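Dataset card, provenance and construction

Sequences and ligand SMILES were collected as paired inputs. For each pair, a complete structure of the chain with the small molecule in place was predicted and serialized as structure tokens. The example below shows a pair involving thiamine diphosphate. Curators did not alter the output after generation; any descriptive sentences attached to a record were derived from the structure itself.
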Amino acid sequence: MAPIWNGTERLFAAVARDIRRLRNPQEVAWFIVPGGSLRQQEDFTSLEEKPQFPGASAEFVDRLEFIQPNVISGIPVYRVIDRQGQIVNPSEDPQLPKEQVLKFYRSMTLLNTMDRILYESQRQGRISFYMTNYGEEGTHIGSAAALDDTDLVFGQYREAGVLMHRGYPLDLFMAQCYGNASDPGKGRQMPVHYGCKDLHFVTISSPLATQIPQAVGSAYAVKRENSNRIVICYFGEGAASEGDAHAGFNFAATLECPIIFFCRNNGYAISTPTSEQYRGDGIAARGPGYGIHSIRVDGNDVFAVYNATKEARRRAVAENQPFLIEAMTYRIGHHSTSDDSSAYRSVDEVNYWDKQDHPISRLRHYMVNQGWWDEEQEKSWRKKSRKRVMEAFEEAERKLKPRPQLLFSDVYHEMNWHIQKKQESLERKQYGEHYPLGQFEK
Ligand SMILES: Cc1ncc(C[n+]2csc(CCOP(=O)(O)OP(=O)(O)O)c2C)c(N)n1
Ligand SMILES: [Mg+2]
């Protein structure tokens, strides 16, 4: 309840204000505290006059000068391997064992193959919508590999590789995109809006940035549990323009939550380039403004992403602090199947990232340099992974659609009469008066 100020308290407040203005450091300073009583302030320790404002700690200056907007600019991009896959600084080499590096590569390429098949499938009218992850595979796998399996993930929509790295099977990815009877969401979500409780991956929701304050709330709960878990929250640089991003960053900093804000800065928010999205030095530059430890990494270098996420995770748990990672990358595909990016960017620009600085080819260069991979292995893995994707795809196409009657059975204990009526009419509309029950999932 707000304090009710009476006349005497107002007088005290005025006196206290005057006392605070006293310049003699030997004088006792008083200030008013909530509730109206007076409290003795700490003595000044130096003869110098220091600002006493509760909202900022700094020195007085006697020269009028605005802070330049570029005071934090040119934040460097941390990398471990160069474009030819060579380790730049041996002390930063995470020295991951061969099997783990091969797993990174297999996940990154499997994701790429799944994207190609599902993208084509949408073009052929088999599914309604799709979003590819081309060029961002390093940000997914590098970060996912640095987490504990029980860390809670909040994604935006372009982080399928994180779920894949946690072991989500191809047939469930496909089932979700087809909205068939095996889709845990029963086709109630748009394609690519995956979710998996067992793998601690919160279901994707389309409204941009809503996951950010939700993730912070979860991180606060995790902190109170004392369970040594963290929350990771992925978002695009476009989503960082939403008010929810501000709310999330500020809550995380003030409530000291163990969360990693992982921004995929891929250059575009649909057709809006970053040059129209912000005037500061990207997203990493915002971190210090909120009191958040921040770093910018090369998102096409899977090892740099891995190292940064690993260290951020370690410190988030140890210190109960939020961390911000801005992974610089490039969205090679169109925003989604509803977009044609040739209308707003050049083919040369896209080709540069596809051919000269792709996270998959960079990792392959590293593996070849190590003597862990060759042309033969590449060919055989590509064939094998494509076969696996095609099998899952064909299975998803064959699967029946969820029966309308079962659509809300996990929502209502007792079915609402008008939903029931709607479901019956949907079944009749789709399958006629005497529909053969065998066509549906039972
Ligand atoms: C609140 C809200 N506004 C607008 C949209 C439409 N929209 C969907 S994705 C997108 C661009 C997001 O860009 P970014 O965050 O950079 O992610 P990226 O697609 O580049 O991975 C927009 C504007 C939305 N989904 N929600
Ligand atoms: Mg973007």
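Derived descriptions for this record:
The pocket of magnesium ion (ligand 2) is lined by residues 236-238, 266, 268-269 (CB under 6 Å).
The CA atoms of residues 380 and 397 lie 26 Å apart.
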